[in-house]
């Protein structure tokens, strides 16, 4: 919280502000650096030893920001109340694509699919979406062990959120995935598997 305004702080600054020991501040700084929530800058002044100062970064701002659950719920319900189904679907799709691209920008699009899934799983976990990757046959699958949006899914028959999650993950991975298991159907987790290739020939076609 002390670093939310984006200014640079040294250990001495934070020690005074937080009224704790310099050792406690350094330990906390190391943990924040490991999590990638703050950046470190070297300050060189004259011939003396360089010092380091620290600043919160964009990822840190997101983690330390206010809980946006209420805002997300209000926006979701307003979108779902749009009567024009084509407009509603277009807006929801745009949201899924935008979020997917944010995740995708942090993946190596030249890496194998399983590796991309594992990095994506780590990114999801950093946002408190518990997930893991396992192999089923020759293909990796992404398991999401708890719904990331429990307050936006009312338990009814509407599967809009599931379809958006498919689109978001497909956009992030750069490959279409489909929901192969769902907690809504009584499965242990929601599982996303690579979708069958649209260009793959069907057995009947291959025999022509």
Name some characteristics of this structure:
about 210 residues; alpha+beta; 4-stranded antiparallel β-sheet; two-stranded antiparallel ribbon; elongated; disordered C terminus
Short structural summary:
The chain is α+β, with helices and mostly antiparallel strands and 208 residues long. The chain contains 8 helices and 6 strands. The model is unreliable at 198-208 (pLDDT under 50).
Give the SSE layout.
Blueprint: H1 11-18, H2 22-34, E1 38-43, E2 51-56, H3 58-64, H4 69-80, H5 85-104, H6 113-126, E3 131-136, E4 139-144, H7 160-173, E5 177-181, E6 190-194, H8 203-206
Antiparallel strand pairs: 1-2, 3-4, 4-6, 5-6
Helix pairs in contact: 1-2, 5-7
Largest sheet: 4 strands, antiparallel
Hey, roughly how much beta strand do the residues contain?
15-25%
Report the total helices.
Answer: 8
- Average of the residue pLDDT scores: 82
Rg over alpha carbons: 22 Å
- Total strands: 6
The SSE order reads: HHEEHHHHEEHEEH
Secondary structural class: alpha+beta
Distance between the termini: 67 Å
In the predicted model, the low-confidence regions spanning at least 5 consecutive residues are: 198-208
Principal-axis shape equals elongated
- Determine the fraction of residues in helical runs and give it as a percent range: 40-55%
The main sheet orders its strands as: 3-4-6-5
């Amino acid at each position: 919280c002390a670093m939310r305004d984006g200014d640079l702080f040294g250990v001495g600054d934070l020690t005074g502000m937080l009224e704790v020991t310099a050792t406690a501040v350094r330990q906390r700084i190391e943990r924040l650096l490991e999590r990638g929530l703050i950046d470190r800058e070297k300050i060189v002044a004259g011939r003396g030893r360089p010092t380091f100062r620290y600043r919160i970064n964009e990822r840190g701002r997101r983690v330390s920001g206010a809980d946006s659950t209420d805002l997300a719920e209000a926006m979701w319900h307003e979108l779902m109340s749009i009567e024009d189904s084509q407009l509603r679907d277009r807006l929801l799709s745009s949201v899924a694509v935008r979020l997917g691209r944010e995740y995708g920008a942090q993946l190596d699009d030249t890496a194998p699919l399983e590796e991309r899934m594992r990095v994506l799983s780590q990114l999801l976990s950093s946002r408190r979406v518990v997930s893991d990757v396992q192999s089923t046959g020759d293909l990796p699958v992404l398991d999401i062990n708890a719904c990331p949006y429990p307050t936006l899914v009312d338990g009814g028959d509407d599967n809009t959120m599931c379809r958006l999650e498919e689109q978001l993950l497909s956009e992030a991975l750069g490959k279409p995935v489909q929901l192969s298991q769902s907690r809504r159907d009584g499965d242990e987790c929601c599982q996303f598997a690579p979708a069958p290739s649209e260009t793959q020939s069907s057995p009947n076609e291959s025999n022509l």
